[in-house]
Specification:
globular, disordered N terminus, single chain, 14% strand, 49% helix, alpha/beta, seven-stranded parallel β-sheet
């Protein structure tokens, strides 16, 4: 059975689909026959959904009640979700003693608590249908740490643990749960942190790219969003029906040391 026929008739919810990985995954899934629902806190999500023939739901995942409402509304509107991609995220770079409490909590809500909430509400329908695919976009920082990213690293490590736990709970119901752990990538999220890292570390922006982002990698280039989308497509296909509970790096060898 082809991957395309597997996704025909499937509903895929992608959080943070207004750009970067989410946008690339949305396009790839739509091309494979899925009915794509994009959620984002930005209007760019509406354009992404329009571009792939999908639908858009505005939602601020930093708000716990708004996240609950999103989950309920997508079930009411679509009748359920077959594929969930928890992709939404952001960065804040600061030494731990200077990290604002509210910003720390906001990052953890968006990247760890919101994925838990959405998964919680969508899993019953997946169980009922006997099929489901959940992909959590973690990071190399879900596997290793870097300085000045205490909230991001904590949330992404937590997301890997959440992935493994839920995979064990849901395997008997035909539901797989996996995490993708990208390295530094050619996305707005990466580009936007270059200046912040330069200030925090006291180095030039070119040194951030060469010495922080690329020096540890075996392949000296940023990962492209389409590479992440291609891996996501594999994970939702029948070919990956036995792949669950994994945290897969796609990082140009960044975590191989």
């Amino acid at each position: 059975m082809s991957t395309e026929s597997n996704l025909k008739g499937k509903v895929a919810l992608i959080t943070g689909g207004g750009g970067g990985f989410g946008q690339a995954i949305a396009k790839t899934f739509a091309n494979a026959g899925a009915r794509v629902v994009i959620t984002d806190a930005r209007e760019s999500g509406r354009e992404s959904a329009k571009h792939v023939g999908g639908s858009f739901m505005m939602a601020d995942l930093s708000d716990m009640e708004a996240t609950r409402n999103l989950s309920r509304q997508v079930i009411e509107r679509e009748g359920g979700v077959d594929i969930l991609v928890n992709n939404a995220g952001l960065q804040h770079i600061a030494p731990v003693e200077e990290f604002p409490d509210d910003d720390w909590a906001r990052l953890v809500q968006i990247m760890l608590i919101a994925p838990f909430q959405i998964t919680k509400y969508l899993v019953p329908g997946m169980k009922q249908r006997g099929w489901g695919r959940i992909i959590n976009l973690s990071s190399i920082h879900g596997l290793v740490a870097s300085p000045f990213k205490s909230a991001y690293v904590s949330a992404k490590h937590g997301l890997v643990g959440f992935t493994r736990t839920v995979a064990l709970e849901l395997g008997e119901f035909g539901i797989t749960v996996n995490a993708i752990c990208p390295g530094y990538s050619n996305t707005p999220l990466t580009q936007n942190q270059i200046a912040d890292q330069a200030v925090t570390r006291g180095i030039s922006e070119s040194d951030v790219i060469e010495k922080v982002m690329l020096e540890p990698a075996a392949i000296k280039r940023l990962v492209e969003p389409q590479e992440i989308a291609s891996l996501a497509l594999y994970l939702v296909s029948d070919s990956a029906r036995s792949v669950t509970g994994t945290a897969i790096p796609i990082d140009a060898g960044w975590t191989a040391r």
